[in-house]
User: Which sequence fits this backbone?
């Protein structure tokens, strides 16, 4: 008898707790409603749909014809996939080098060598320009700069300085163009993050190093780089994640051409879906990419931990102040 | 060697490396500055020398503001309705994004309810989901709810995609407000919504402004969703219009393209001027640092 009573009591308590939870959730609902509605409709549903679509041969009629894993088989046999994957790897690796390398160089130049706040601000603003410029205008700048005729900036410059003949840069070096154009965009993010980290190094370290007779090079090598180890690693993984899925600027500048010479993975998926209207195949191509992205994201979570990622840029130490935190999140 | 000589040597060495660094910085930054200078001088001249020096000033390149642009028999859309579309798009995105992220950020920062942790983690994981994969399915969803080829559809999609980041930022701002302020509001008889609106929101005005500015600029620059989801020319935004213009005038009339590009960049330029000024005044005027 007492056991039964205890059980009933337990049940009632559990019910009460769940009722209370429900009650709390309902209280929060007026605040959360619109957020949840949009996230579910335009995030959760599409994510699920992409997965299901990848198992169909959906075309412009938008009908669900299930074909099993056929799309994936096709992907691994498609002759252009090899080029696309090769391009993607090249694109990600070299763009990353420009992003992180230039970002590092600029951060050291502005926050270590030039400690004048206003000059630092000026250079940071200049490098922020590509990122803040609407993609279409940024692409226009490149198209003009590399124009194949004598009117193009680069051609006229090389012609006047070295007497070189005009050439079609985008046609002859599509991958290099795409890499440099994209590389310049990510520089400002790396620069801001690294600058904040350099500024958070206690000045005593620099003083101690100077007293010991360290040169600028020694200070960079033995003081700054060890402090920037985590931010650099973080930037590398974060940018890898965004680069493997980026395609907007490539679409605008070369559109993957000539032929498939600058086609990258995500652009390949875009073209299949919106140029050929092979939605099913396009979804399958991006599903493979998703799996790759998830693996990288898991590595990132494992290496840096959930909390550190929430406070981007502030990974290494807790010294960076709240303002830096906001600045980093903003971009 | 005396101590003074050593000091002088060190100074000479460092100032030399300073100069080298300045030179390096200037050389590296020059191409970027050049590009934007061209955009300006190219838009107001018939011809440019060395890429940036204007020759024979003209307003002809700005003709799209008061007349139709034609090429062969093709007539381009008038720019003003398209500009209005862009303003509408960016404005609605800003309004919705700020409002929704303020509500959700408050709940996620200040309320306790089951599933809170789950929501927080899921949104971040979703945020990492590649845009291109979403794009294909979003086409289907928009088509299904009858919002394809509608600016409203692009607005909703863009807001949804930016919400996780905006909400996380806003949540961060709310986290920094002390509980006591909120308690005081309840003591004075406020309801939760009243406290949110009357007491908490005024505390984070600068944060709201930052989120709003970035939402507006993101909406204004938005290209891929407008390009993919809008087909009727009356729904075009400036990004799509400029992309089409580039397609037709690329080798013919860079002056026109520069002017149109500059026109499209006005809000971005305004942002730079304003934020630069406020940043500098903070630097000079802020006694407390």
Assistant:
């Amino acid at each position: 008898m007492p056991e039964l009573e205890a059980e009933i009591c337990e049940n009632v308590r559990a019910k009460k707790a769940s009722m209370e939870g429900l009650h709390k959730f309902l209280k929060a609902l007026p605040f959360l409603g619109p957020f949840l509605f949009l996230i579910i409709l335009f995030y959760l549903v599409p994510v699920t749909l992409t997965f299901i679509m990848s198992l169909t041969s959906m075309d412009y009629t938008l009908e669900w014809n299930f074909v099993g894993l056929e799309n994936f088989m096709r992907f691994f046999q498609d002759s252009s996939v090899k080029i696309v994957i090769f391009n993607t790897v090249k694109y990600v690796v070299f763009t990353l080098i420009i992003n992180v390398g230039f970002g590092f160089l600029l951060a050291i130049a502005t926050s270590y060598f030039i400690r004048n706040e206003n000059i630092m601000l000026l250079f940071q603003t200049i490098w922020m320009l590509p990122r803040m410029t609407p993609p279409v205008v940024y692409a226009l700048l490149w198209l003009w700069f590399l124009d194949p005729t004598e009117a193009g900036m680069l051609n006229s410059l090389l012609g006047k300085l070295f007497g070189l003949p005009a050439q079609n840069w985008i046609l002859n070096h599509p991958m290099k163009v795409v890499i440099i154009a994209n590389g310049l965009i990510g520089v400002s993010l790396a620069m801001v993050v690294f600058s904040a980290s350099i500024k958070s190094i206690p000045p005593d370290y620099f003083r101690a190093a100077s007293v010991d007779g360290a040169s600028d090079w020694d200070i960079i090598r033995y003081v700054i780089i060890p402090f920037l180890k985590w931010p650099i690693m973080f930037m590398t993984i974060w940018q890898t994640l965004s680069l493997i899925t980026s395609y907007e600027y490539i679409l605008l500048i070369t559109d993957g051409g000539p032929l498939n010479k600058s086609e990258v993975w995500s652009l390949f998926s875009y073209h299949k879906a919106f140029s050929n209207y092979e939605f099913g195949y396009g979804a399958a191509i991006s599903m493979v990419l998703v799996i790759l992205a998830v693996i990288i994201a898991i590595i990132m979570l494992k290496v840096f931990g959930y909390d550190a990622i929430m406070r981007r840029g502030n990974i290494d130490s807790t010294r960076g102040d709240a303002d830096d935190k906001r600045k980093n999140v903003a971009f | 060697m005396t101590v003074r000589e050593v000091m002088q040597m060190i100074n000479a060495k460092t100032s030399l490396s300073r100069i080298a660094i300045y030179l390096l910085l200037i050389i590296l930054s020059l191409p970027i500055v050049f590009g934007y200078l061209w955009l300006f001088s190219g838009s107001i001249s018939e011809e440019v020398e060395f890429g940036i020096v204007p020759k024979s000033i003209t307003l002809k390149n700005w003709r799209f503001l008061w007349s139709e642009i034609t090429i062969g028999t093709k007539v381009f859309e008038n720019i003003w309705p398209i500009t209005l579309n862009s303003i509408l798009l960016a404005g609605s995105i800003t309004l919705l994004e700020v409002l929704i992220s303020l509500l959700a950020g408050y709940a996620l920062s200040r309320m306790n309810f089951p599933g809170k942790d789950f929501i927080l983690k899921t949104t971040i994981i979703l945020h990492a989901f590649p845009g291109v994969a979403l794009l294909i399915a979003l086409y289907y969803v928009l088509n299904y709810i009858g919002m394809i080829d509608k600016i409203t559809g692009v607005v909703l999609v863009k807001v949804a995609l930016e919400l996780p980041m905006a909400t996380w930022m806003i949540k961060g701002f709310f986290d920094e407000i002390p509980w006591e302020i909120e308690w005081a509001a309840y003591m004075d008889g406020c309801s939760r919504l009243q406290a949110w609106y009357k007491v908490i929101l005024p505390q984070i005005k600068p944060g709201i402004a930052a989120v709003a500015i970035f939402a507006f600029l993101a909406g204004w620059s938005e290209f891929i969703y407008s390009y993919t989801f809008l087909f009727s020319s009356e729904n075009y935004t400036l990004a799509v219009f400029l992309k089409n213009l580039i397609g037709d005038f690329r080798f013919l009339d860079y002056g026109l393209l520069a002017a149109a590009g500059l026109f499209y960049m006005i809000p971005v330029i305004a942002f730079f001027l304003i934020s630069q000024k406020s940043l500098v005044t903070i630097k000079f005027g802020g006694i407390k640092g």
About this structure: The CA atoms of residues 197 and 228 of chain A lie 7 Å apart. Residues 2-53 of chain A form the longest helix (52 residues). The domain at 83-330 of chain A is CATH 1.10.3720.10 (MetI-like fold).
